[in-house]
Amino acid sequence: MAVQLLNVTKTLQKLSLNVKNKLATPIVNVDAESTKTVLFGNASRNTNFFNKLPAEALWEGITSVSNAGKKRGRGKAVSKKNIKDLNRGQLIGVGKANIVWPGLSAPIIRGKELVQQQELPPDPDREQKLIQLRNSMGTTRFGKLSPIERGWTGTKMPGRSIGPPDAVGEDSFEGFDTKVLELKTVFNMKGNFGRKRRLSVYVVTGNGKGLAGFATGKGVESKTALRKAKNRAGQKLMHINIFRNHTVYHDFYTQFGKTKIFVSQRPPGHGLKCHRAIKTICEVIGIKDLYAKVEGSTNLQHVVKAFFLGLIQQKTHDKIAEEKKLHLVEICKENGFYPNVLASPTEVRKPEEIKNDESMDFKQFTLHGRVVLNKKKYPPFYTKLKSWESYLKKQERLRNHAKVKKHLIFEFGEIKSFLSEKYPECRPYKKPPKEVEETAED
Asked: Domain of 125?
C-alpha cells in the first residue's frame, strides 16, 4: 500500500510540471483505495470578472468614487440621493411570468408534500409598482431650516444651537443654550486598525446672565460628539462679570498662543462688532455691546480661549479704585460728558503722593501699557472743494457752542448765562423730576 501511494505522489509531480510547460496532457484523478485512474479532459478556467465578485461589490464599483478620485474632483454628481437601485423591488425567481419554482421562489417541501412547479395568474400592477419605486429614489431632499436656526454658513453646524446640556440627577440646566463653534473630521493612526476616523466638536454653553463654559467632544457619529461636548461644557462653567448687563467692565488686551485680541467697551445700542466666534460667545454669555479686533492667528480654538482669558481677568471698578487709590470717574459722550463717579477707594492718595512719571490714562492701565495701532485717517475729499471754505465761514459763529454747553453743565449743572437770574423765564426748558406718590396703606 505504501508503494502505491508513493507512485501517486510521483504522478502528481509530473502533472504539475506538464501544466507549467503548457503541455496538453490529461488530468488524472487517483483514488488511493482502489488505485484507479480516471480522465477528465484538458484544464480550463470558467471564471471572469463578473462572477468572481458578489453583486454588492459590483454595484458599489459603479455607484461610488474612490478616495483618490474624490481628491481629483471626480464623481461630483455621484451621491446617495442621485443613485437609483434598479434591483429594488425584484426577487430572484419572480419575473413577468408568475411561476412557482421549487428551491428558488418557493421551498422544495412544504410540510409533508413536495412542491410542484406551477404557473400562477399574472400580476398586472407589477411593472407600475417597480416604476413607482424607482421614481421615489434619488429625490430625497433635506428639510429647510428657518433663518433663525441657521448657523454661520447655511445648513452647516457651526453657529447653530443644540439646546441645553443634559440634566445631572435633580440638577437641570434651565435657561442655558449651547452653540456649536466648530465641527471637523479628525483621523488617528492606530497600529492595528489603521486610520481611525472621528468627529470633533467644539461648543460653548451659557445662560445669558454671566455663566458660560466651553468644551470639546469627539465621537464616531455627530450626535455622540455633540452630546459629549455640550455635557462637558456644562461641567466647566465660569462666572463672568458684565457691566450694566450689556458690556465689559473696561477695555482689555488678551492673548493665547499667536492670537491677540483687543476688546473695547461700547455704549448701549452699538451691537457686537467682532469675530463671529466672539459674537456667538457674547450672545451666550449675555454681552450685547462690544468691539473686538483679532490680530495674528485666527485659529478658532485659540480665539475662544484668548477671549475667555480676557473676560476672566477683567477687574471690577471697585478693585481698580482700590489698586490705584484714586476715584474712578466716567466721562462719556452718551452722558453729555457729565462726570459720574463709578467707584471710590477706602483711602484716597493726595496729589503729592502721585509720582510725576505715573500714567493716569485709564485705557493704558487696563491694556497694561499697550497702545492700539490705528490706521491713519486722511481728510475727506470734500475738504479740498471751494464750497467747504464757505461752509466753515458760516459755521464759525457756532464753533464753540458745544464746548460752552459742556462747561456750563460741568460748572452749574445746567445751561445758563449771567442774565438767567434776572430773566428766569428765558432758561431752557427742563423736565421736572418724577414725583413718587405715596400710597396710603389700608
From this structure: 97-135
